[in-house]
Amino acid sequence: MTKTLGFFPGGLKLPGHKKRSTQTPIRKTPLAKRLTLPLQQHIGSAAIPIVEVGDKVLKGQQIARADGHVSVCLHAPSSGTIIAIEDHPIPHPSGLTAPCITIETDGEDNWVERHPVKDYRSLSTHEIRQIVRDAGIVGLGGAGFPSFIKLNPGVHHTVETLLLNGAECEPYISCDDMLMRERADGIIDGIEIMQYALRAREVILAIEDNKPQAISAMELALASRPHLQNTRLVVVPTRYPTGGEKQLIQVVTGKEVPSDGLPIDLGIVSHNMGTAYAVGRAIHHGEPLISRIVTVTGKDVPHAGNFETLFGTPISELLTYAETKREPDEAFILGGPMMGFSLSGDNLPVTKTANCILAGVDDVAPAQEPLPCIRCGDCASACPASLLPQQLYWHSRAKDFDQTRDYNLFDCIECGCCDYVCPSKIPLVSYFRFAKTEIMNQERERKKSDLARDRFETRQARLEREQREKEERQRQRKAALAASKAKKEQQEKAAETADADNKETE
Amino acid sequence: MAIFRMSPPFLAGTNRVTIQMLQVIFAMIPAIAAMVYFFGPAVLINISLALTVALLAEAILLKLRKRPVKPFITDGSAAVTAILLAVAIPPLSPWWLTVTGVLFAIVFAKHLYGGLGYNPFNPAMVGYVLLLVSFPLEMTTWLPVESLADKPLDLHSAFQLIFYGQTNAGWVADTVSGATPLDTMKTQIGQSIAPAYIVNQNLFGSLGGLGWEWINIWFAAGGIYLLYRRVISWHVPIAMIATMFVLSGVTYLFAPEITGSPLFHLMSGGTMIGAFFIATDPVSGSTTVKGRLVFGAGVGALTYIIRVWGGYPDGIAFAVLLMNMLAPLIDYYTQPKVYGATK
């Protein structure tokens, strides 16, 4: 804690609005009648169902298996009957539907047989990763990247630092805060396992200074484990987006993750506090990831708080449970007010990445016609990646995508700081997302057309080759014919038979 | 629940173009008050006239360009242009001079380039330069500060001079005007009079031109307010002032016969309004941090060069316009290092 901290450029001091949801302890959301589980709640390929409609399942039973390397399993959050495996609306900004497994719960909440591990040190690193993968654990900070992959540094790297991200810098969200306050020991259980799996030399827990209770809870939990070597808690200043992986690394270590690299290139692996807790539960209790803490908050939520919620629970039920003032199908925000997205629809389920449900933002950005850019440069001073959002905006707007790449569009983390400070209220992030999507589409098209051209050229070459071979054969045949003329009639007949043979083979 | 935009971020800061522009106007009030104190109420007539013409022209142009009038007329940018131009024009200028300058600034320098945010040149300075090169005589005669004037002008006589060319008593603008301290300095240096001697005349104060030093101080105070409110960043003004100070300091040290002192240059003419209110125009200036330092230094250097070796007593307007031309180039070569860039 005595080490001086680094800093990242830009960023914002935002009103936190976190007190609203931290006044009550974590509550359990009541068991829903139906749980709808999208097969893809993580980055990578969707899981493949291993149950059929009509099957009875127990709480914690695996119902879908991982498909390929970048994928994780899915489990029944409660006991009941599979009543559907079909497309269902999912929490996606475009209102998409996707394959989901729907369970009708029986209210018994009967667990499947669990296999807790008494001493994780008896396991190999590989076995730990396998358990974490089988438990369906993904990054709970919001991205949903399969965690077991980040417990495998690979043969070319050694892990210097395991960084536990408890910054939770986005306003309103407090699920990690409450988890740290109430279940600090459980989190440290997970951290120990992670450190063991990664053979990390040191462990750093980073928490923003607006969470004093969480900090003392974690400090207390750390103090009770004197055997933990090289583990320290770093209190970082509250500044958005400190919780961004790259920004937190810059604050804690002073290093920058290379633009085209990963934190592991610096010997750093970072995980979310909630993920660490899930890892602890999976090893020590044999529990797969079937629930998470969800912050339900906002101006329209009188009983805001944090709710331990089974995956698949309809978000509308959670909102009703928190007594939200809300019309049916009224829009809400999933995630924080800076990087979340707005959703409407009452049958969307809570998924592994649902950290916050926000109904009613206090300093809401009204939908309005933006003024032209006056080049004030406030966006550039706010950008934590030191980009020039203004130039990116011009080029995105002009669809001059080559230029946007020159101005490092893909280093944009879409934190929304530029939007926030813009005096003309230009929706900059939307422009950048548009440009990124267009570029990726173009890339895909180019790959496709490259493939098509390749295919065409190969075919063309094959046709030419065949043509040449045909001509060669004809030439040989003609030569044979000419030679045979000098020979006898029987010999001529024999030559004709060979000719017929030739034709057959053609 | 309020209707919010459908894409993140859903939180909005309080920063608005209109608020920034109003802050700029607010920050000019003390300096304008000082001008009224030294040059009489004619300054206010000029400002009112310029404001009226600018807002009318803005509204008509927006209509012609089929743009929504309300959000743009209330953004405050036309008002800022009008006030900047009005305080730069000699107080007793005939009304048509002000009207021509403002119209040219709003119509040609701003709207023909696409309106707010699209003008490559500072509109107020375009208007000013047009007047300066077209009507050099009218543009270089200033009122002396009130304490020097034989007969202080009241509001009524100022009004008559501006709109009818003469007062009831038969005065014309020439009767009451004279050269500015900067002009005097330049002319008399041309006559091989030592600057140290020139500043002893009663047109000069203890720092710069009499009266002008106070106007500059108040513009600087307004500028510091804008810095404090984060409407402008420190880079342009500090770079500009520092460059002028160093250039004039070095010249003053080695060739005191051709230049006023560094303090004289900082406290005379349009130095402070230029540094804090004109060169800081975001639209036509440089936008990167390093770029702003270059931009400000460029304005400072050019201003000083024009004052001492150029054909005009003051050079802010030309310096700003010249640097406006370079702004895109400066921006291109001063891009910040992006997070994680390995280059």
TrEMBL record, chain A:
Q: How cofactor binds (record note)?
A: Binds 2 [4Fe-4S] clusters per subunit.
Q: Which residues bind [4Fe-4S] cluster 2?
A: C383, C412, C415, C418
- UniProt-annotated stretches for the region Disordered: 1-28, 443-506
What does the entry list as the binding residues for [4Fe-4S] cluster 1?
C373, C376, C379, C422
Q: Which UniProt keywords apply?
A: 4Fe-4S, Cell inner membrane, Cell membrane, Electron transport, Iron, Iron-sulfur, Membrane, Metal-binding, Repeat, Translocase, Transport
Location in or out of the cell: Cell inner membrane
Bias class Low complexity marks the residues at 1-14
Q: Could you cite one Gene Ontology molecular function of this protein?
A: metal ion binding
Highest taxon, organism lineage: Bacteria
Membrane topology, as annotated: Peripheral membrane protein
According to the UniProt entry, which residue ranges have a biased composition of type Basic and acidic residues? 443-474, 486-506
4Fe-4S ferredoxin-type domain location, by residue? 364-393, 401-432
- Record-listed E.C. numbers: 7.-.-.-
GO BP field: electron transport chain
Gene Ontology cellular-component annotations: plasma membrane
Q: Which Pfam families has this protein been placed in?
A: Complex1_51K (PF01512), Fer4_7 (PF12838), RnfC_N (PF13375)
Q: What class of enzyme is it?
A: translocase
- Which co-factor is required? [4Fe-4S] cluster
- Family, similarity comment: Belongs to the 4Fe4S bacterial-type ferredoxin family. RnfC subfamily.
Tell me, in a sentence or two, what this protein's role is: Part of a membrane-bound complex that couples electron transfer with translocation of ions across the membrane.
Q: How is this protein organized at the quaternary level?
A: The complex is composed of six subunits: RnfA, RnfB, RnfC, RnfD, RnfE and RnfG.
Which NCBIfam families does the UniProt entry name for this protein? PRK05035.1 (NF003454), rnfC (TIGR01945)
What name is this protein filed under?
Ion-translocating oxidoreductase complex subunit C
Q: Which gene encodes it?
A: rnfC
TrEMBL record, chain B:
Q: Name one GO biological process term.
A: electron transport chain
FMN phosphoryl threonine (modified residue): where?
T180
EC?
7.-.-.-
**Membrane topology classification:** Multi-pass membrane protein
Q: NCBIfam families, per this entry?
A: PRK00816.1 (NF002011), rnfD (TIGR01946)
HAMAP family reported in the protein's UniProt record: RsxD_RnfD
What protein family does this chain belong to?
Belongs to the NqrB/RnfD family.
- Protein task: Part of a membrane-bound complex that couples electron transfer with translocation of ions across the membrane.
Full protein name: Ion-translocating oxidoreductase complex subunit D
